[in-house]
Amino acid sequence: MSLSELLQQFVTDMAHTTWYEYLAVFAGIASVWYSRAENILVYPVGLINTIIYIFISIKGHLLGEATVNLYYTIMSIIGWMMWLKKDNKQESALHITRSSKKEWLYQVLFFLFFYTGIFLALTYLKKSFAEGAIPWADAFASATAFTGMWLMTKKKVESWYWWIATNIASIPLYFVKHYVFTSVYYVILFVLAVMGLIEWMKKAKTTNT
């Protein structure tokens, strides 16, 4: 595809972007901004994003994306409760920390489990239901997102590495599926994820001190 064709697709697809996709994108950006700042609003604002994207994904026959956003929705509720927990001093019981080698192993196994399961499921369902699926790419974006969200509820610095991987994979993935505004959204999320990683690394050092 030439540059002119890419630009034409961008213009055409942007013209077909719905108001609720705009709302979902702006809510998603706000949610990541709040997570970078370790603000509890990451979860209620994020729920607006994930619920709308479940609808968008089902409407577009994007089973992988719908599954990811359903998982986001469930984990957002769990994360919301975990971040609200207080210790005996009525301060947050959960602090930003780095993962141990053992925890890294669990993360990789967690990722591989979901990647394999999602890849096999999408490969099978693509024939009759999930026509828009790209199994290997969707499975990678979904599995890294699952891992990042799980670690975010535990306030692990490494969650941002998985988010960065998700964003890099999602930029071209949504573009080729004609969700251009969402593709641009993931470019912004990539930048915010890098900022979040730097911010949480600093906070983890403070916690350790």
Summarize this structure briefly.
By secondary structure, this protein is mainly α.
Question: What does the model show?
Answer:
With 209 residues, the chain is mainly α. It has one domain. The protein has eight helices and no strands. It is globular and about 55 Å long.
> Which regions are unreliable across 5 or more consecutive residues at pLDDT < 50?
none
The count of strands amounts to 0
**Radius of gyration in whole Å, from Cα?**
18 Å
Q: Which band does the percent of strand residues land in?
A: under 5%
The helix content is over 70%
- Give the count of helical stretches: 8
**Any idea what the shape is?**
globular
Number of domains: 1
What's the order of the H and E elements?
HHHHHHHH
Structural class: mainly alpha
Cα separation of the termini: 52 Å
Major beta-sheet overview:
none
Q: Which whole number gives the mean pLDDT?
A: 88
Please specify the SSE layout and strand pairing:
Blueprint: H1 3-15, H2 19-36, H3 42-59, H4 63-84, H5 101-125, H6 135-153, H7 159-176, H8 180-208
Helix pairs in contact: 2-3, 2-8, 3-4, 4-6, 5-6, 6-7, 7-8
Question: What labels describe this entry?
Answer:
mainly alpha
